[in-house]
Give the backbone structure.
Amino acid sequence: MTALFALATALLWGLADFGGGLLTRRTPALTVVVVSQSIAVAVLGVIVVATGAWTETGPRLWYAVAAGVVGPVAMLAFYKALALGPMGVVSPLGSIGVAVPVGVGIVVGERPGLLQLAGIAVAVAGIVLAGGPELRGAAVRRQAIALTPVAAIGFGAVMALIAEASTSITGLFLALFVQRVTNVAVGGSVLYVSVRRGARALPEEGGLRVIRAALPALAFVGLADVAANGTYSIAAQNGPVTVAAVLASLYPVITAMAARGVLKERLRAVQAAGAGLALVGTVLLAAG
């Protein structure tokens, strides 16, 4: 179950990142974050009411609040990086944040088996190699890569926090709702301040019409991200966090494949080798 839900997380995050990266090429990243997360809040609110999840309020929800504060910062940095640099490069580097939940798992006493340790090592090596030798590239690419550690650490922290925010399925619905409400509050506040300082909230060309046309894509990004947080939480609660985190962090392979198929981005040989290693690591982890 851990492997299944963690791989579902990778698929959902990979597609959400690809969609978010595309959207931020025309729309300010903060607007993408706020609108997509607002749609997620509306859907989750209906689910919370329908399932009676509000009755599971408790101290654990503070983990969801913390994840909601960190999440918008990570998403903003990541979407900006995806808009500036090749998705097939930025996304793998962003997954280095897997070190945060893996470290937490080891600290709390998890000890993966030998095969799983080998899988973790191979998968992490593949993720890093898939980033490619881009540090000496153009200035825009250097800026994109500079943003990714911020996103990586933030995503890793969110993974660790959301795994602690609930102990049941209905509790998970409530935790995800609280997380997203906090996302919108934080992101909306930052957007308001940035607009007051002269930044744009709408696309330079097309304005609100572009936002309306992009609503289905924005909804997909927001809901896929929510679903990924949910599947990751289930994976982490039903198996070793170290395994769940590494498998979930294979999402860059999905983003890179989508960028290759839709945008015709070409991967260097080292990046293709990295993707292959990541998949080998996945097999080792699942077999362990």
Observations:
- The radius of gyration is 18 Å.
- DSSP finds 13 helices and no strands in the chain.
- Residues 134-140 have pLDDT under 50 and may be disordered.
